[in-house]
Amino acid sequence: MSSVYTVSQVNSYIKQLFSTDLLLRKVYIRGEISNCKYHASGHIYFSLKEEGSQIRCVMFASYRRNLSFRMEDGMRIIACGSVSVYERDGSYQLYCTAARPDGIGALYERYEALKRKLSEMGMFAEEYKQPIPRYITRLGVVTAPTGAAVRDIITVSKRRNPGIQIILYPALVQGDGAAESIALGIRTLDRIGVDTIIAGRGGGSIEDLWAFNEEIVARAIFNCRTPLISAVGHETDTTIADFAADLRAPTPSAAAELAVDDMVQVQMSLRQSRIRLAMLMKQRADYERQKADQFRLKLRLNGPEGRLRDARQRLAHLQERIAMLVSSRVKEERHRADGLRQQLERLVTDKRKENRTRTEQLKERLSRDMAQRIRTEKHRLELAESRLAALSPEAMLDRGYVYAQDQQGKALRSAAQIAEGERILLFMKDGSVRTVAEEICPKSAPDAGGGGRDV
Q1: What is the CATH number of the domain that holds 165?
Q2: What is the pLDDT of residue 448?
Q3: Closest CA to 85 of 27, 20, 12
Q4: Are 132 and 258 within 8 A, CB to CB?
Q5: Which of 261, 284, 315 is the last residue of a domain?
Q6: Is residue 150 part of a domain?
Q7: What is the pLDDT at residue 421?
Q8: DSSP for 308-323?
Q9: Does an H or E element contain 331, and which?
Q10: Is residue 306 part of a domain?
């Protein structure tokens, strides 16, 4: 029985076959880009195709940094890399490490390089764009003298304004010398003086439109003092001239509509403005007439007699008002004085009551404090008497203590003051005893039962 392998084993084996093929380790493939996607991770996923065949490709972010152009669908490139198997899907693909434009792609690279250069120079900046004037009478056109573009511009312009003057500079718009011819046409029309210039041509391939991607044309447009509209190719075509122009039109016909006002609409707008102006003038006249009538009425009412009569009436009214105000103020002040007097009397009465109550409270408090102080001092006296009584000699003798003196009457406080056989006098509670010290016993020695006795 033949061996059975897993899918992973087969894919791994095929990948090893690819990796051992020296041709596939570094291969150059020419093709057209399709399904190009720039991933958020920085990787680029795309396919290279030709008629009847295609290969999947990936360029990792680390190699993308060396890419000098942006990949887009339809570009032809030559990609360099290694062909290997992606084991998870079991498909092979080109791991692209470098790429360069091929054919039309080279033109595209030139286009992007010039676009970056002119943009960095500020030739596309909005602050340099001029507004397209309205109601022009002279239109300059730089394009081929034959072809659909010039016919469309003339047809649309004459339809919108039959009296428009169109000055055509017949320029080469394709092939050798086309860029120089277009630039010369722009400078010529700018010098002779027109209101607006349209520079453009009909659609075509990128090679056909390339004259409008040259720096000389972009500089002529940028330096042109006359407002300029670019109208190159179809709406999807974008050239360097479009970025340098003051306004871009998607087609030559659209450029004519942007440059030339529709006189039918202009005349209609003028008629409407004339009607509106007449209405406004009538309204203003009516308003001014009403104001004049009001001024005449005010003048009649505000004449000298009327003003004097009004002044007398105002004076009488003011006199009455002053008298009422004075009377009211006197009553108000009198009422206020009465209120203040009553308030003062209430305050004095309340203050007296408050002082009387406070005096009684102070008397009671003083009596309580004095009684408390007497009790406290009495208690302290009793305690002192008790302590004094406890410390008196009589109290000591009463508790069984004895007071000893020698024969000279000197108090004996230590056994060392007494000699054996010496006569001493002992004082007790109810009398005294004369005795002789038979034996002196120091405090540290055991008590032998001896002591002073009467002889």
Answers
A1: 3.40.50.2300
A2: 43
A3: 12
A4: yes
A5: 261
A6: yes
A7: 83
A8: HHHHHHHHHHHHHHHH
A9: helix 304-391
A10: no
Same domain, 144 and 96: no
Pairing of strands 165-170, 76-86: unpaired
Q: Please, what sign has the CA dihedral across residues 392, 397, 401, 404? A: positive
Which pLDDT does position 158 carry in this prediction?
A: 93
Q: Look up residue 297 and give its amino acid.
A: L
The pair of structure tokens assigned to 294 is 């009001």
Maximum CA extent, the chain: 176
Residues spanned by the domain of 34: 7-102
Buried-state track 300-327, b at ≥16 Cβ within 10 A, e below 16: eeeeeeeeeeeeeeeeeeeeeeeeeeee
Put the strands of the sheet holding 196-201 in their side by side order: 165-170, 138-143, 196-201, 228-232, 247-248
| Amino acid of residue 202 | G
pLDDT the model gives residue 359: 85
- In Å, what is the CA distance from 97 to each residue of 12, 67, 80, 407? 23, 9, 6, 136
Q: Which residues of the chain have pLDDT under 70?
A: 1, 103-107, 205, 236, 301-306, 309, 390, 444-455
The reply to whether 140 and 92 lie within a common domain is no
Measured distance CA(4)–CA(25) in Å, rounded: 30
| Euclidean distance between CA atoms 345 and 331, whole angstroms | 21
Residue 76 within any structural domain of the chain = yes
At 225, the amino acid letter reads R
Q: Are residues 147 and 83 part of one domain? A: no
pLDDT at site 93: 92
pTM across the whole model: 0.45
Structural domain tally of the chain?
3
136 and 84 assigned to the same domain: no
